[in-house]
Amino acid sequence: MVPRDPEQILQFLAPLPIKRIWGIGKVTGKRLNDFDITIIADLQRLSEATLIEILGVKGGHRIYQLSHGLDNRQIVAREPEKSISNEHTFREDCGDWAVVEQSLLMLTEKVGGRLRKADYLARTAQVKLRWSNFQTITRQISLDPPLQTDRGLIDAALMLLERERQPRTVRLIGFGVSNLVEPDAPVEYQPDLFTDVNKPKEDIRNKPLDEAVDRIRDQFGTTSLHRGNWKRK
């Protein structure tokens, strides 16, 4: 029986392993273990500010609340999103590949922001092209391991677009992600037998930048901030 008294709740939770807290899966658990945090009592001894430094604003706040027995969420069945995408139709057929690339970059950033806001990782990225004769093609690539940073998504988008580069005019460009998974969901990672150095990779160093950009766009609008021309490295 779970106690109701706040002090008893803390005592009840203290000896339990951290993975008993909702939202702490393999990835978050390893991150906390790196700081010698293994049981809920270890979390309870930390300030909310410290947990935010370790896990970010959203994760740190949530884990701090749950480790102290605080959970004000409504019980709502979550219908998982199957895909996230954005498209842009040019006013006139576009034959300038640099303009097409820049449009794709902006679409990819929008998808990345929506992906992070929904708190998902993508396992598949897709580019859609419609030529001036209305012929439409789609090309996709698997993302292994799954990712959500703008850097990784843009790398994938530009890689797919480059494969279709040809002297034709474009009517529509689109970018989307699918096969979405939650960050802590168990995902089987199958490394390539032959490493592809050009394969899109997730870089957690880009996560704080993406989160900062997301906050600015939430406050001032999605068109308030965009990166300049992006070249894959």
Summarize, please:
It contains seven helices and four strands. With 233 residues, it is an alpha+beta fold.
Biggest sheet character = 4 strands, antiparallel
End-to-end Cα distance: 56 Å
CATH class label of the largest domain = Alpha Beta
Provide the β-strand percentage band.
15-25%
Domain module count: 2
Oligomer category: single chain
- Radius of gyration, in angstroms, nearest whole number: 21 Å
Secondary structure class reads alpha+beta
CATH architecture of the largest domain, by name, is 2-Layer Sandwich
Going by CATH, the homologous superfamily of the largest domain would be: DNA polymerase, Y-family, little finger domain
Bin the helical content: 25-40%
